[in-house]
Amino acid sequence: DADRFTSPGLKPEGLPLLRTSSTLQSRSPPNTLKALARTIRKLWRHPWQNWGLLLHAAALTACIRGGLSATSLSRMTRTLRRVATGLPQWSAATPRYRLRAAWAAHAVGRRLLPERPCLTQALVLQYLLLRRGDDAAELHIGVTKDEDTGLQAHAWVEHSGQVLIGGTGAP
Q: pTM, whole model, 2 decimals?
């Protein structure tokens, strides 16, 4: 079970390793407020179905990021799997839901986690799919060592060979 959550190996070609620019930290407070107002206006234009998914992804992002700070990745993935499969299952995951969940995990992650969001985003998506009974999505973690940049890692989720989150063409 836990092997499906973590599969070692190098990243697929064309995927970015880590996001290094910090958009929120480089903004001054007035610009941050403008960005928040812009985000709220964009949210207001979304269908109401997206609001629930975005709020769920935001709560999961906070919990998972906190959990990763307090415990190991293997314990975190076991806990997420146990919680997701232990609760009553929501309706089955459809291809459309997979894309919406990936979009929500990415949208929330890039706004709340300015640096190194890939692992948290991937775990959020993995949990959302498990809650819908979709056990086929796999979390991948790649690590590489470069003489110039040192040790770098990246996480992504694939379903049937398609990268859902963490790739260049993914949401």
A: 0.73
